[in-house]
Specification:
By secondary structure, the protein is an alpha/beta fold. It is built from 6 helices and 11 strands. β7 and β8 form a beta hairpin. The longest helix has 18 residues, at about 70-85. Residues about 220-230 have low confidence and may be disordered.
């Protein structure tokens, strides 16, 4: 099985390749440079594995939520490559990929939270399923950090830039013990690949034209009046 995964929804640009039993990856924190980096990263991984694009069995992509241009870029690249190579696409939540950045702690609930700018966050809660995957505990959403509603859980882990931006406010939302928190984590293609393999084996790959981005909000810029109020 050869699966190429792309994740460009945040400041991190990353690509990963599952080649047989191995996974190799490239990642760089490079805001506004994703377009120039992502395809060379993919070609470097294929060269390292000693295979060409036509040896791929599927393309996976982080579908967002995240930065509008980054999400659009990743999904567009995945669609284009899949159409050219006649391959299926597996879309994976960027928040789910981010959740796997949390330290392995079997019973802790994970809050994956991305700074959405404009005073908002993208957030979702998960629990590890014991088989390398995740169980979603609520829906992905975009909201003000002070209005974030969390499920009851005895222990928590937090990952993502939303924590770096709003740790004081978010810490007031927990009902249980916070075991770990890391605001310097981003969704990574390696985790997109891991989750995509499970989806592929379950028969949930799809035609490229059905692979859609998830933005969670349509409005991506403040008006001049809103900027004055911010």
């Amino acid at each position: 099985m050869n699966l190429l995964a792309i994740e460009t929804a945040t400041e991190a640009c990353s690509v990963a390749l599952i080649h047989g039993q191995d996974i190799i990856a490239r990642s760089e924190i490079a805001p506004r440079r994703h377009t120039e980096l992502v395809l060379p990263m993919a070609d470097a991984l294929l060269a390292e594995a000693g295979i060409g694009r036509h040896a791929l069995d599927a393309i996976a992509v982080g579908r967002g939520p995240g930065a509008f241009t980054g999400v659009r870029l990743g999904v567009s690249l995945a669609q284009g490559m899949a159409l050219a190579l006649d391959l299926p696409v597996i879309t994976i939540s960027s928040l789910a990929a981010l959740a796997l950045e949390a330290p392995e702690d079997g019973d802790a609930t994970i809050l994956a939270v991305i700074d959405a700018r404009m005073g908002e966050i993208y957030a979702a809660c998960y629990r590890r399923d014991g088989n390398g995957g995740l169980i979603a505990l609520d829906d992905e959403r975009v909201c003000k950090p002070e209005s974030l509603s969390l499920p009851d859980a005895p222990t928590w882990q937090v990952v993502g830039t939303g924590w770096a931006a709003y740790s004081t406010v978010l810490s007031e939302r927990f009902t249980g013990v916070l075991r770990s928190a890391d605001g310097a984590r981003y969704p990574q293609a390696a985790h997109v690949a891991e989750l995509a393999m499970q989806e592929f084996k379950a028969g949930r790959a799809q035609a490229p034209e059905l692979a859609l981005p998830v933005y969670l909000r349509d409005k991506v810029a403040l008006t001049l009046v809103e900027q004055g109020r911010a």
